[in-house]
């Protein structure tokens, strides 16, 4: 992950960068104004740390170029209000120790899961619109005096709520709002610090007067949460479908290319029936010529030598057998019998 560390350099404006970065740390400087053009070159930025500056003014379109922003840390500044157009991808926002007093238009940041408003001067949770993914809300170190279910109903996924300890030391604990909030957090399994301890004697009167406004806001928050999940699933499905389609098109193009530029292999040449017949006749005629040559070959000399004639006859017979049928030579026993017969003929007067 590529980042730029520009912290504690006494900068008075957002520095320019020569290449895209995902992390920018410009904390500990003297930046007072975030202008509309401050982040034009930071469209790939995901983490922005601007804490411990002197930021007072944020122009309405300052954060619009940050389409991939996930974490924004603005604590220890002098911010009084935020522009309405925060990035949709923003997950964590730290506004602790600022001068926030009025409402915060955060409903455009539908992906927000963590929000810290600690150390401001808030007497009540500000109206921030519906935040369907908010899980953790920090309201500590504020002079909080009022807390009701209408303020919490816009956070339908809330799991952790951190409140100032001073709230539990006021007369708030003896009000019906305390009972209703305590019932709400028990019903929706919200962890609250510090723990609620209401002192109302007859809680039934408080619970009988429920707030229809809170129920409507909670239902709207649930619908927004389902829409957010559907959007995430549809984006994932579109990505997978696009990848599969690209793979299919690539395979199809490769197949067509191979079919066009690869010559088909010709099948092995099979002789016709006529050619097979001619080949058999040629083999037979060749074998017969060898047999005829061997059978009509005359001995070299001497009609008076019986051994030479017998020897020539034996060799002729062997040659004929070999050329004609291509079989193995006769066994040794047959050869011995032939020799004995020749010997017997030689001894005849």
Automatic annotation (TrEMBL):
Residues 287-327 have a biased composition (Low complexity). The chain crosses the membrane at residues 235-257. It comes from Nesidiocoris tenuis. Residues 284-349 are annotated as: Disordered. The lineage of its organism: Eukaryota, Metazoa, Ecdysozoa, Arthropoda, Hexapoda. This is Leucine Rich Repeat. Keywords: Leucine-rich repeat, Membrane, Repeat, Transmembrane, Transmembrane helix. InterPro entries: Leu-rich_rpt, Leu-rich_rpt_typical-subtyp, LRR_dom_sf, SLRP.
């Amino acid at each position: 992950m590529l980042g730029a560390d520009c912290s504690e350099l006494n900068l008075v404006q957002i520095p320019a960068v020569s290449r895209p970065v995902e992390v920018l740390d410009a904390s500990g400087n003297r930046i007072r104004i975030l202008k509309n053009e401050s982040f034009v070159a930071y469209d790939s930025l995901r983490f922005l740390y601007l804490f411990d500056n002197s930021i007072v003014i944020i122009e309405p379109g300052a954060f619009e170029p940050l389409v991939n922003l996930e974490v924004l840390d603005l604590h220890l500044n002098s911010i009084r209000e935020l522009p309405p157009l925060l990035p949709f991808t923003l997950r964590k926002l730290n506004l602790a120790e600022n001068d926030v007093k009025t409402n915060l238009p955060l409903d455009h940041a539908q992906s927000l899961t963590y929000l810290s408003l600690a150390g401001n001067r808030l007497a009540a949770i500000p109206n921030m619109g519906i935040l369907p993914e908010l899980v953790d809300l920090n309201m500590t170190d504020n002079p909080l005096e009022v807390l009701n279910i209408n303020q919490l109903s816009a956070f339908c996924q809330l799991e952790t709520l951190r409140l100032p300890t001073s709230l539990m030391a006021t007369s708030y604990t003896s009000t019906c709002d305390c009972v209703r909030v305590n019932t709400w957090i028990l019903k929706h399994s919200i962890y609250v610090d510090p723990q609620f301890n209401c002192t109302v004697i007859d809680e039934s009167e408080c619970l009988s007067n429920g707030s229809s406004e809170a129920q409507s806001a909670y239902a709207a928050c649930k619908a927004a949460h389902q829409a957010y999940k559907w959007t995430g699933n549809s984006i994932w499905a579109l990505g997978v479908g696009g990848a599969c389609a690209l793979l299919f098109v690539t395979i199809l193009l490769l197949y067509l290319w191979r079919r066009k530029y690869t010559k088909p292999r010709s099948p092995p040449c099979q002789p016709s029936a006529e050619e097979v017949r001619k080949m058999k006749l040629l083999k037979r005629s060749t074998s017969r010529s060898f047999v005829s040559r061997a059978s009509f070959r005359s001995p070299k000399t001497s009609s008076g030598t019986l051994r030479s004639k017998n020897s020539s006859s034996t060799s002729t017979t062997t040659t004929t057998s070999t050329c004609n049928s291509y079989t193995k030579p006769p066994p040794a026993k047959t050869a011995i019998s032939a020799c004995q017969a020749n010997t017997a003929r030689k001894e005849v007067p």
